[in-house]
Specification:
Elements: H1 11-38, H2 45-49, H3 63-69, E1 104-113, E2 118-125, E3 130-137, E4 142-150, E5 162-169, E6 171-177, E7 182-189, E8 196-205, E9 207-208
Antiparallel strand pairs: 1-8, 2-7, 2-9, 3-6, 3-8, 4-5, 4-7
Length: 209
């Protein structure tokens, strides 16, 4: 019976082959895979050979992706808060609180803010009335001014108001203690190209207007 001969590969040749494979893999990683899959092109080979055109950014709903595409809203200055110095605070704002507040209630209200426009939504509260609130948009940020206007026996031409919070946001939660009897609520302005729905939840001592 004839014996079969087996070729014996030297250990040095095996190591050399492995090293060559690793080098080739590293070159493919840097020149093709990183530009095409991750948008990284440290050597410029992705642009030179066209691999960079294969990269598609991830615009999913991940937190990091949302932070990347989120636009910068305009800076809001202190001067935007409340009435100007030429508007006198009415005496009614300093009247004492009533003995009894409005009956505690809960409501959910939905308000559509048209594209490029602003809308106010207000409730009536007595002095030291308490409120918990939450609002959330269907999409995108709104400019809002949470403010109040004291009830006046003889309303002046220039209405006095206090601003409690002014910001850009798509969601806000808070508690509120009314500093005077009057109308309190939100001015929402939609600077986007589509209508935005605001869902507002209220719990406290107030009346709907």
């Amino acid at each position: 019976m004839a014996e079969m001969s087996h070729q014996i590969i030297e250990k040095s040749k095996i190591i050399k082959a492995v090293l060559i494979a690793l080098v080739v893999a590293a070159i493919l990683l840097v020149t093709a895979i990183l530009p095409a899959e991750y948008g990284l092109d440290p050597l410029g080979t992705g642009k030179a050979f066209g691999f960079g055109k294969l990269y598609v950014p991830d615009n999913g709903m991940g937190e990091e992706s949302q932070m990347t595409v989120k636009k910068n809203n305009p800076v809001i200055k202190l001067e935007k808060a409340g009435s100007g110095p030429d508007v006198k605070r009415p005496a009614e704002a300093d009247l004492p609180a009533p003995v009894q507040q409005y009956t505690h209630r809960e409501d959910t209200v939905r308000v559509t803010i048209p594209a490029g426009k602003g809308i106010e939504y207000k409730i009536r509260m007595l002095k030291y009335g308490q409120l918990k609130y939450e609002w959330l948009t269907s999409k995108g940020d709104l400019y809002f001014d949470f403010h109040g206007e004291p009830k006046e026996l003889k309303p002046s031409k220039n209405t006095y108001f206090d601003s409690y919070t002014i910001a850009y946001s798509n969601n806000m939660v808070g508690t509120f203690l009314s500093p005077f009897e009057g109308k309190h609520g939100w001015y929402f302005r939609n600077e986007e190209g589509k209508d935005i729905l605001v869902t507002l939840r209220l719990k406290g001592e107030y009346e709907l207007l």
